[in-house]
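User: Predict structure, ligand guanine.
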Amino acid sequence: MTAKLISGTEVARQIREELKEETDRLKEKFNVTPGLVTILVGQNPASMSYVTAKQKTSKELGFHSVQDNQPETISEGDLLALIEKYNRDPQIHGILVQLPLPKHINETKVLYAIDPKKDVDGFHPVNVGKLMIGEADYLPCTPAGIQQLLIRSGVKTDGAEVVVVGRSNIVGKPIANILIQKQKGANATVTVCHTGTKEMAFHTRRAEILIVAAGKPNAVTADMVKEGAVVIDVGVNRIGMTPEGKAKLCGDVDFEAVKEKASLITPVPGGVGPMTITMLMLNTVKAAKLAAGIPAV
Ligand code: GUN
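Assistant: Predicted complex:
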């Protein structure tokens, strides 16, 4: 079997079109413009490219968008004060602090400082807790994007055997939590594998839907995949430069071999990546509506 590609680029384009219409409606009918601030500390090249892409998309949708660049040397106290300023700013509905942060800043403290109502990343413990109990306002962006890719590609999750490789707070744990909920686009049986797992291939070979967020190239090879599985590759590994001087990317899955076994597979780039940014925009529109008391449609 040769897999069909799930194009995150295309699904993200569709959702962004819907969001543009919704943003225009909010402006015209309610005089509300969704506002997003992205805070970047230092000059990590990957973080800079993510934040630039987030800003570009938010501008295309017509948001009030602010990029706040801070030096690597900013103190923890000053960063917390900056977050507090945006917590109080009524034009800002979503606050995103790009991770990772420099070593001298306590990431947990920073995430706790963001007003949960403006936490469009879905990383604040209040929002993590709400997700656990099926009451989420904001799903974290990458897992939310994965769920949308499955739904919009017609993949049935109800009763499906899902295996997640990786247990990060940003992807592995939240996607597992999303997919076990008794809700539409979920209700799956989920196994989470991690560095403590004894027989990784034993688990991955059982997966009807295999979600790989391991953070290393070739973490999943063809012998680890069930014939006909749906494979979602969340990895973004920089493996050199293209002749045009852009970063050359690969995922965590041995794409060429695994695509001969899977029924559906996401490419890297052009798979999960574009969805993450789009779900951030969706959360920001939602935050603006919640702040203004506008019901979800
Ligand atoms: N760094 C890598 N992924 C993310 C993300 O989804 N949000 C933030 N804030 N930082 C990240």
